[in-house]
Design brief:
Elements (H helix, E strand, L loop, with lengths): L6 H5 L7 E13 L3 E8 L2 E8 H4 L1 H8 L6 E10 L7 E12 L11 H6 L3 H8 L1 H4 L3 H22 L4 E2 L5 E2 L10 E5 L2 E5 L4 H11 L1 E9 L12 E9 L4 H29 L4 H9 L4 E3 H10 L12 H8 L7 E3 L4
Parallel strand pairs: 3-5, 6-10, 12-13
Antiparallel strand pairs: 1-2, 1-4, 2-3, 4-5, 7-9, 8-9, 10-11
Helix pairs in contact: 7-9, 9-10
Length: 336
Amino acid sequence: MQKSHWIGEVQSGMHDGKEVELKGWVYRTRGSNKIHFIVLRDSTGTIQCVAKREALGDDSFEDLKASLIETSIILKGMVNVDERAPGGHEIVVSSAEVVGPVNPENPFPITESAMENAEGGETEFLLDNRHLYLRTGRMTNMLKIRSSVFGAVHSYFRERDFTEYQAPSFVAGAVEGGSTLFEVPYFGRKVYLTQSWQLYAEAAMPALERLYTVAPSFRAEKSRTRRHLTEFWHAEMEIAWAGNAEVMEHGEGLVRHIARTLLDERSDELAEVGRDLDLVARYADSPYPRMRYDEAVETLQGLGVAIEWGQDLDYSKEKVLTKEFDVPHFLTHYPR
């Protein structure tokens, strides 16, 4: 049952003129009583497959014709190069097997009309069907991008001899602030979901010197904006014998490495979800400016923002300040 051919390979031209066996799910389907067109999906892409009654026989053709969206099927056939087909290739089907049919009384629910008519709107509808939304092209692309980001974090630190170090998810106290702790009952005691790995890292730093983690963190604050997430994955590092300049170098180096990795591995996926590849390239290639707090205050005052020296820069001021830059930047020398 293990797969030997992938749609992405076929669309890349690896199997032109050869017979392949594709295993995947029905993405779209249309046709007549004599010929049927199936767009097949797997994790690497989609491809058009052409099935004819005379080639498959009545029983197999009727089974294929009755297959609804997300039916699991196995198709065998020749790879035909055809510029008219999406991706430039299609499969001329010689045999078909329906592995997992979809119940006609409970079809795949994510459709344009269903989202338009859903109570609570499109977002709530997709959240209610999250397990199925994962199968859509957008979510598949986002998960692949996320995987490459995680891989880039690990490769950056490991190439520099950092040691990956894990800490517990249940902790006894706060790292950031007591008001955002998630309290959890723990066999008659109170513990909390971790906000950060920081305190454990500080304890381990004299032993390991260079250490990092990628782990979930939890904050008991309502997710009103992207800056307020109840759960997120947190890349953190600690390093001994280093000052602020070295820490900033690693911060810049890590973001540069992630951006470069995404361009190398996931340019197609980034484009498909509407991301600006030129912006990602600037993140990968351009130096990240350093700005002192004094300079930031003067810049904001020059832009008409009401701020006095010594005040904190909240989100509204940060938003104005970042418009002056095309890439991330560091703000240093805050007043003590």
